[in-house]
Amino acid sequence: MTFHIITLFPEMFDGIFQSSIIKRAQDKKLIQVNFINPRDFAKDKHKTVDDTPYGGGSGMVMKADILVAALESIKPKPYTILLSASGKRFTQQNARSLSKKKNIALICGHYEGVDARVEQFVDETLSIGDFVLTGGEVAAMAIVDSTSRLIPGVIHPKSLENESFSKIGNWKMENGKYLEYPQYTKPEDFRGLKVPKVLLSGNHKEIKAWRDKESKRLSKARKD
Fold this sequence. Notes:
The protein is α/β, with parallel strands linked by helices and 224 residues long. Helix content is 27%, strand content 18%. It has helices at 14-17, 20-27, 64-72, 92-98, 137-148, 204-223, and strands at 2-6, 32-36, 50-51, 61-62, 79-89, 103-108, 113-114, 124-127, 189-190, 193-194. The strands form three sheets. The chain has a five-stranded parallel beta sheet with strand order 2-1-6-5-8, sandwiched between helices. Strands 3-4-7 form a three-stranded mixed beta sheet. The protein has a two-stranded antiparallel sheet with strand order 9-10. Strand 9 and strand 10 form a beta hairpin. Helix 4 crosses helix 5 (137-148).
């Protein structure tokens, strides 16, 4: 899979994409990440990519002609996502759907926002939550990370079996469970905080019952 990230600040991705699982996925040729700087498509000597908003208001708006030119430079035509606070909430279901595509472009807005006409040139507009970021770069990192790990070969299949958010709606997972149960490891007693006794019992039936109960408890608390 190839990710094309349209961003004014490609250097922001250096640390994230050059370490851990994402780096290994690139090394194994399972994913490729390309960066496209909109300034390369600006036509004036100052490489202007934004302008004042029509109708007045504070801040600067990224220009539609520049962003669309950057997008149309990508061949073959990718599945395109505009990252915006006003977009649809990105979910695990979106990540699973995206993981089946071969060519994805992510447009990172910045400054006060993006000319609304850009939405006519994309397949969908997504947000990673009900909060405002300084730009779309952090959202792009999250989407690349969550999508990449679902591509066969990026991580061990066993790691995907009992994960949270595998299905939208009531926080239920595809296998009928809920959010993932609490996990513990050594030491058994850390500053007086002890591992639940049931996990030390070796009784797999009781352990499963406890984990199911905790999953439901956490799911209800999150939903409420």
